[in-house]
Amino acid sequence: MSSDAAILTDAHTHHASPLTDAAVVDMSGLSAEASAAINARYVSMGIHPCSVPDNWQAVAARIADEAAAGHISAVGECGFDRTSSVPLGVQQQVFTSMADIAAATGLPMILHIVRAADIILAQAKVRREGARWIVHGFRGKPATMRQFLDAGFTISFGVRYNEESARICPSDRILLETDTAAPELLPPLCDRLSALRDEDLAVTTAANFSRLFAPATPRP
């Protein structure tokens, strides 16, 4: 059901060569040289709650510099994960630094949330920046999704999803992504959810993608 004229958009991918130019490529953890070699129009950088390096403050400083220079399109992925071996206190410090960067630059933030909906919702109440926060790879039930929507979040669905949540998510709050899955799975994902919702999601998500993400400024 996707429109031939619509541009497929991928809100979050870990593949350096995505299916579409309108894909936010996650460059977190890459060196400056490695990230500069990735030829993508949209990129993100963050500190994942499951892989916080010992020198995370220095990494955060680099991300802040990249964001201020316009070299990234989003901060993340970042967030909270109760299955992580990283203590929640450290995750909180890292998240605060990432959220500060996003707030200072006006960039959207791509959220990783595992068994931590309560934590991220509490953060949204304190910071009041939910309109720029994107829950990536959402698989939860409608009740949890409604809490995120009430906080202002946008919901990004990947190849695994709760069908009812994907069906009822408001059109102005939905994105599609491939995450670590093969980029070639994006068109069938779009077709499946378009049929489920009786809506051309290629068009819908393209509009939401354009509203949230700006192309990154090429490095000199």
SSE layout:
Layout: E1 10-13, E2 23-26, H1 32-36, E3 42-45, H2 56-68, E4 74-81, H3 88-105, E5 109-114, H4 117-127, E6 133-135, H5 142-150, E7 154-157, H6 163-168, E8 174-176, H7 186-197, H8 201-212
Parallel strand pairs: 1-2, 2-3, 3-4, 4-5, 5-6, 6-7, 7-8
What does the model show?
With 220 residues, this protein is an alpha/beta fold. Helices cover 39% and strands 16% of the residues. It contains 8 helices and 8 strands; from the N terminus they run E-E-H-E-H-E-H-E-H-E-H-E-H-E-H-H. The protein has helices at residues 32-36, 56-68, 88-105, 117-127, 142-150, 163-168, 186-197, 201-212, and strands at residues 10-13, 23-26, 42-45, 74-81, 109-114, 133-135, 154-157, 174-176. Strands 1-2-3-4-5-6-7-8 form an 8-stranded parallel sheet. The longest helix has 18 residues, at 88-105. The termini are far apart.
- Can you give the mean pLDDT? 95
Shape: globular
Spell out the helices and strands N to C.
Answer: EEHEHEHEHEHEHEHH
Unreliably modeled segments? none
> Over the alpha carbons, how many angstroms does the gyration radius reach?
16 Å
Helix count? 8
Give the number of DSSP strands. Answer: 8
Structural class: alpha/beta
Largest sheet entry: 8 strands, parallel
Terminal-residue CA separation: 41 Å
Strand order of the largest sheet: 1-2-3-4-5-6-7-8
